[in-house]
């Protein structure tokens, strides 16, 4: 009887102890962080370690707690840990592979976190030893490549991609991550392409693969030859390019769907009733509620594909029946509040999405339509820095598209008509458009609609000058194509002319405030030259002669705006100052607009006097215009149909560096929050074992 009492006493003392027993893996970690080689006292140390469930929090915390000097004292053991992690990746025992991948992730993050000021070479030395780094990274990249391309577990492939995303984003500035030199040398480009070209792997890993590729393309892209840029630019395999397009398409579609759901939520219930009672005073609040986190990572991937690979342009127009968009992954993807909208694969809700099937034959969509809808959402509110960056990137992508000959051909193709329901900002002076009234038109009409929408909704104190310049440039490039190919688009041009005139009116009304921050004459010149394009070449691309008459009518009707603009630029150009030369250019550009006003106004006044009419109707003014074209003299202006082609370097380099930094931070946060589903993984592989 004495023996059981002794056991009970021992148990009691243990349970009341202030120092509970540590789990074995923590004791093993502590051995690694001593100067002694842990395998000396236990030859099976490394074999046993990778059978233990990784304690990511403890391992990262321990590494972060060591400064550079302390790390160097245990450098040999950390190098050994890294080496054995890499070796474990080649083992058949799946549990070891899972634990090795997670341990590597903790190593990369932990060492970088504490030693942010250290050079890349020091980090490499701490992790794997500089003399062995090339061999270790070669082995690591080969193992990851084999796991990604093999027939193994999908969870394991997901973990490999998470590790690579972790490795790529450990530094704020991706180009300062010296370890990536080894990722350049030991390319995994083909493995990424294989994931994108395969339907099953694309559904589960496509998003991570596309984001990883976009980040790798931006590693030291301005300083050295990046093999990922070179390889991406020459991909011509149709299934691969289509796969990449589908991943981007799905991510943007999911964002659009979730935004639309939020919009519908806010249109019902008490909030909607209150808004209708009090008027439009709560419109801004409603808009803020609809502000959702943007997805710059997927936009960057789209930009790099469009910018670098001319073959990808065909993917933009690749039709996808709406039902195809519902391809959901076989393994459910856990979502969390921290996951940005649009970062998860589309759900099966898309099967029931009523947005596109507007006819009995189920209307198809394509990547460009989805992108235009996405752009119409993010471009509504540019006050937030992320949304401003997204809007800018959307316009850069549209710039690349607008100056591509093949893209222009399908944008203007009269046999490719779509109903594109763009999202419009709530405004007091207009009603919400009814979706069913949207006509089926060539896609260029949707691009122009998006540009017009942006022009009329962003005239504010915090004036986004850069976005306006890009917007006008896109319109100009599209019109240059129409003039060159004599494409007559049946578009409501009057809406564009009205928006442009109102923009000039806004610049005039806010001259003092805007001139303190911006060169408004550059934008004014662009707008005036758009009118000059219509005046000089309109007969080659406007749909009918009456459209040309309407152009003159709008210029004459709004002549006061052009008169005021001329007075302003004449005043600035005749005085010494920084704006003298740019203002002078606008003065010269206005010559034909003023000639039209000065030619027709006296004739309209004369017609009114002779016919005793105090105010002429539009038809009467048009009658005067038509009967007096012959006596109008205009000057031929040079280079109206010429434009500078888009170039990323050097003008956009600063923007992309900051954008990639922001994306990298966001990806790092999301990879960290995911904790890579340890319990799920271990349960899966325990059952296999």
Largest sheet: 2 strands, antiparallel
Backbone structural class = mainly alpha
| Fraction of residues in H or I helices | 55-70%
Whole-number mean pLDDT = 84
Low-confidence runs: 1-17, 269-289, 323-361
Question: Could you give the distance between the termini?
Answer: 43 Å
Describe the global form: elongated
Beta-strand percent range: under 5%
So how many helices? 35
Coiled coil: 622-649
Organism: Carassius auratus
Protein name: Armadillo-like helical domain-containing protein 3
Subcellular location: Membrane
Question: What does it look like?
Answer:
It contains 35 helices and four strands. It has 689 residues and is an all-alpha fold. Among the domains are: 24-186 and 660-688; 489-644, no CATH class. The strands form two sheets. The protein has a two-stranded antiparallel ribbon with strand order 1-2. A two-stranded antiparallel sheet has the order 3-4.
């Amino acid at each position: 009887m004495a023996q059981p009492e002794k056991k009970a006493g021992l148990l009691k003392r243990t349970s009341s102890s202030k120092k509970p027993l540590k789990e074995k893996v923590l004791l093993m970690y502590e051995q690694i962080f001593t100067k002694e080689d842990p395998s000396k006292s236990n030859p099976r140390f490394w074999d046993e370690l990778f059978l233990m469930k990784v304690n990511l929090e403890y391992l990262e915390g321990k590494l972060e707690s060591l400064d550079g000097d302390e790390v160097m004292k245990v450098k040999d053991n950390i190098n050994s840990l890294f080496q054995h992690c890499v070796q474990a990746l080649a083992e058949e025992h799946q549990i070891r592979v899972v634990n090795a991948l997670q341990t590597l992730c903790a190593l990369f993050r932990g060492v970088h976190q504490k030693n942010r000021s250290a050079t890349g070479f020091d980090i490499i030395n701490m992790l794997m030893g500089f003399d062995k780094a090339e061999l270790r990274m070669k082995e690591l990249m080969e193992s990851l490549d084999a796991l990604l391309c093999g027939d193994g577990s999908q969870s394991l492939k997901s973990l490999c991609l998470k590790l690579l995303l972790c490795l790529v984003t450990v530094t704020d500035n991706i180009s300062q991550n010296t370890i990536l030199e080894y990722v350049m040398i030991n390319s995994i480009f083909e493995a990424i392409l294989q994931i994108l070209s395969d339907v099953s792997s694309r559904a589960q890993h496509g998003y991570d693969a596309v984001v990883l590729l976009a980040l790798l393309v931006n590693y030291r892209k301005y300083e050295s030859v990046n093999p990922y840029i070179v390889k991406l630019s020459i991909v011509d395999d149709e299934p691969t390019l289509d796969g990449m397009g589908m991943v981007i398409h799905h991510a943007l579609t999911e964002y659009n769907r979730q935004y639309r759901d939020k919009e519908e939520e806010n249109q019902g219930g008490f909030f909607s009733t209150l808004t209708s009672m009090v008027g439009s005073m709560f419109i801004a609040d409603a808009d803020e509620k609809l502000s959702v986190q943007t997805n710059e990572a997927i936009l960057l991937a789209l930009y790099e594909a469009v910018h670098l690979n001319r073959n990808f342009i065909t993917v933009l127009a690749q039709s996808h029946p709406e039902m195809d968009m519902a391809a959901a992954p076989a393994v459910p993807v856990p979502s969390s509040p921290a996951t940005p909208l649009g970062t998860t694969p589309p759900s099966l809700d898309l099967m029931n999405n009523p947005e596109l099937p507007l006819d009995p034959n189920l209307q198809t969509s394509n990547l460009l339509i989805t992108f235009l809808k996405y752009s119409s959402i993010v471009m509504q509110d540019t006050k937030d820095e992320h949304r401003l960056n997204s809007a800018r990137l959307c316009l850069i992508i549209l710039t690349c598209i607008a100056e591509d000959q093949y893209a222009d051909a399908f944008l203007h193709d009269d046999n490719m008509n779509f109903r594109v329901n763009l999202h419009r900002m709530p405004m007091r002076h207009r009603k919400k458009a009814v979706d069913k009234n949207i006509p089926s038109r060539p896609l260029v009409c949707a691009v122009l609609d998006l540009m017009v929408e942006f022009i009329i909704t962003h005239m504010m104190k915090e004036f986004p000058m850069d976005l306006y310049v890009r917007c006008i440039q896109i319109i100009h490039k599209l019109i240059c194509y129409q003039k060159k190919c004599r494409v007559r688009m049946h578009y409501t041009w009057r809406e564009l002319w009205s928006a442009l005139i109102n923009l000039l009116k806004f610049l005039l009304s806010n001259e003092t405030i805007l001139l303190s921050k911006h060169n408004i004459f550059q934008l004014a010149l662009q707008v005036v030259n758009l009118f000059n394009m219509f005046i000089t070449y309109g007969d080659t691309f406007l749909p009918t002669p009456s459209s040309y008459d309407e152009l003159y009518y709008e210029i004459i009707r709004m002549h006061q705006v052009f008169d005021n603009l001329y007075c302003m630029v004449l005043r600035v150009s005749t005085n010494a100052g920084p704006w003298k030369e740019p203002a002078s250019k606008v003065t010269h550009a206005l010559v034909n607009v003023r000639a039209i006003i000065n030619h027709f106004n006296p004739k309209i006044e004369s017609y009114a006097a002779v016919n005793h009419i105090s105010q002429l109707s539009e038809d009467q003014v048009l009658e005067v215009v038509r009967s007096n074209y012959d006596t109008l003299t205009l000057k031929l202006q040079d280079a109206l149909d010429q434009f500078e082609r888009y170039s990323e370097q050097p003008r956009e380099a600063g923007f992309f560096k900051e954008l990639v930094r922001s994306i990298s931070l966001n990806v790092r946060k999301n990879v960290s929050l995911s904790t890579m589903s340890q319990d799920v993984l271990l349960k899966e592989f325990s059952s296999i074992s």
